[in-house]
Amino acid sequence: INVDTTDNVPGACTGIVPGFxxxxxxxxxxxxxxxxxxxxxxxxxxxxxxxxxxxELTLAPDVYGNFSNVCSTSIDDPAIVPDCFADDDPYQATVxxxxxxxxxxxxxxxxxxxGSAEPQLxxxxxxxxxxxxxxxxxxxxxxxxxxxxxxxxxxxxxxAGQTYYLVVDGYENLRGEFCIEIIEITPxxxxxxxxx
Length: 196
Fold this sequence. Notes:
By secondary structure, the protein is mainly β. Helix content is 2%, strand content 32%. The chain has one helix at residues 34-37, and strands at residues 55-56, 62-68, 94-100, 105-111, 124-131, 137-143, 152-157, 163-170, 177-186.
């Protein structure tokens, strides 16, 4: 090793110039990261692959989508698997959504998207959290198979103004397109303007 530490003299044995910033290359193991190395994904992930990129849903009765978890990962997902997931199946192919509570009660279903030619997610699991994406998330509800093989969080009562995070995952790393159906069970309370 060169003991001369001037910026202009390369290392005697290595040829490395002190102070020069060299580019780095990161190698990804395709067996451990199939979604990133998949030629269909081109190294890209879904926009809502992480909690911080959650897609906003409206709490109104309707079917929303088409969504996909084909190019998703489980990077930065909660480490503890919800106990309702069959066989303690870990998060593997997750996408995130967010919604704001309004005091109503809802059932949230994952289902196949009618009329789509894309391969559909055939078995899902989902969980609802509160908290902060970059901090602590608290599990409130989860489900694996209430809707056939598709997940459904039933009779979920929201708190007005509360932010919720919904994560949808493919059971055993299954991937595909899916839609989200929101069914209103109990409407949000209505304030009477005469009573403030």
